[in-house]
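Study the following:
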Amino acid sequence: MAIALKLLYLSLMGSNSNITDPISLYVQKNESLSTLTDTLVSKEILQNQSTFLALAKLKKFNSPKPGHYLIKPGMSSNAIINLLRSGNQTPVNLVIHEINNLNDLSGLLGKTLMADSTEFLSYLSSNDSLKPYNFTSTTIPCMLLPNTYEFYWTASPKKFLNKMQKAYKQYWTEERIAMAKKQKLSPLEVCILASISQKETAKKDEAGKVAGVYMNRLRIGMALQADPTLIYALQDNTIKRVRSKHMQIDSPYNTYKYPGLPPGPIDLPQAYVQNAILDYKGHKYLYFCAKEDFSGYHNFAKSYDIHMINARKYQRALNKKKIYK
């Protein structure tokens, strides 16, 4: 009898898997024990399905909590049941990078977290949902600083925004707000300007110089004439060469047609671009054009005549490479 009990104990409390490395297990909302067990078997987490089900019945375990769990080698049926019953999740990493619009952002969130992209898009597009954060569906990207964040897989859209708001407030310290004010910009305007500058150059050491051109234009009432805002308005990232036909679009993001900053950011600007704007020391350039060597850097000019010389160099380089669109 004692031997039988010992064997029963070992079968219930001993290792019940063949895995040699930790495995991520995602349990959906309202997932049945039957479906969960099938998943555990298919992933070879369970070696003995009947032992697991017998123990689950004994422990009255029939409704696993949704979440992302890390199943480790050597875990017993008892340990697995206790983990799934407790809801003690392992966080997932959400990498927020350069994103063009809320559709792309919602797609990323839907792939990383439990709620689907439609649910995220609906929440992020609702001004009523965003009102407590003092943002709108147009400006909300400014609250989302690109970085790597830890979230529980079950995080709702509201919990997602709550965490992003906390990171936003940590970035926008009193010192940074004062720096923005010194530049005669609000935090929102810094973000919008940074989003345009980031699209213009991928060179960190040039971000402030590019942003400075736009700041100089703003201060003298000159139109920004920023090509990336046109591409955003047209929603066509295949455009390599902005032409006069593109400038005809009637959109508040057409900075050739409408003066000042557009109503919202055109992507999620990195912190270093915003920092470059806050640290802007000033220059007298009003124009810039991509260098003809396609290095990613730009030629800057104080006068339109010099700018046109630079522009023609770049146009000839494009023609030589047969880039016409």
About this structure: Residues 304-320 form the longest helix (17 residues). The domain at 15-86 is CATH 3.30.1490.480 (Dna Ligase; domain 1). The first strand starts at residue 23 and ends at 27.
